[in-house]
Amino acid sequence: MDFYISTLVQGLCLSAIALGIFISMKIFNIPDITTDGSYTLGGVVTAKLLVLHQPLFVVLPVVAAGGALAGTATGLIHTKLKINALLAGILVMTALYSVNLEIMGRSNIPIGNFPSIFNMVNFSLDPDRNTFWIVLIFAVVTTLIIGYLLKTDFGIAMRATGNSESMVRAQGVDTDRMKIVGLALANALTALSGFLVTENQSYADISMGIGIVITGLGAVIIAETFINWFRTTSVWFSLVLVLSGAIIFKFVIALILGLGIDPTLLKLITAVFVLLIVSLPRLSFKSSL
Q: In this structure, what are the phi and psi dihedrals at residue 126, rounded to the nearest 5 degrees?
């Protein structure tokens, strides 16, 4: 039972990054590599502020603002300097490595002796179950906020920008502004995932974000498969499926590692698994004549 709860917690901790990649990749069609840096930024800022004895009601907005600034930087480079979105993300991600290291002052910050969101609120006497309920509530609240935003006029304009930028621009909408806001929102969510994971594992590490975009992308691709399967156009249902995708992804990886595979191969396993879920729907077993 502890295995399932632990895996659920890990999946829910990554739900915000899955939502962020869903916004950047599926709404705006932008492959945003800033994710690797903004995820680490969220963890680094969390650890640094806790070490400085800052309360959680200060830590959370600062983490979100830091991620939003990273996304804004990528958006400005892409839209104002007319640089390819992928390259813009790589540039900001690379710069964030130095920024994160400068904030930390070292490569690792343990926070096990500092107050945590998981010991400030008690829904259960069992620490593992209490952690599960907290991250579940966090994921649900985050999803509700994003779902509400995407249903507003502003959210509809964001979604329309991704579907047909030229048509939306003809309606007088500033599509550059929409992209910047969208990337800021996506990276704010990513930073919040970094916050949750750092709180859960009780430390922040400079390398914690390496390859994390693959994890988020895998969750979104799983969700997209279900979205196509159910043929849904509902924003709410799509977001729920994104959360489910994050949980399913972590369960598959955990089960694979449970078979006794060397944990040092985790990144390789993750890459192969994402490759499989990306390529399988596109494979055709019919011979072409």
A: -80, 120
- Whether the CB-CB separation of 100 and 204 falls below 8 Å is answered with no
CA diameter of the chain? 69
Residue 135 and residue 9 in contact, taking contact as beta carbons nearer than 8 Å: yes
| Token code pair at residue 211 | 């390859």
> CATH second-level architecture of 2-281?
Orthogonal Bundle (1.10)
What's the whole-model pTM score?
Answer: 0.92
**What is the end-to-end Cα distance of the chain in Å, rounded?**
52
Q: Which amino acid is at 13?
A: C
For residue range 199-221, what is the model confidence (pLDDT) as tens digits?
999 999 999 998 899 888 889 98
Domain ranges of the chain: 2-281
| pLDDT bracket for residue 252 (50, 70, 90) | confident
Question: What is the pLDDT, as a whole number, of residue 286?
Answer: 46
157 touches 165 (CB < 8 A): no
Is the pLDDT higher at 193 or at 277? 193
Q: Amino acid identity, residue 289?
A: L
Q: Where are the beta strands (DSSP E) in the chain?
A: 108-110, 203-205
Q: What is the pLDDT of residue 260?
A: 80
Measuring CA to CA, which residue among 113, 129, 125, 132 is closest to residue 13?
132
Half-sphere exposure of 83 toward its Cβ, with a 13 Å CA cutoff?
Answer: 15
- Residue 186: HSE in the Cβ half-sphere, 13 Å Cα cutoff: 35
DSSP string, 201-257: HTEEETTTTTTHHHHHHHHHHHHHHHHHHHT---HHHHHHHHHHHHHHHHHHHHHHH
CA distances for 161 relative to 49, 76, 109, angstroms: 37, 16, 40
**How many other CB atoms are there within 10 angstroms of residue 252's CB atom?**
18
**Angle between helices 34-51 and 212-230 in degrees, nearest 10:** 120
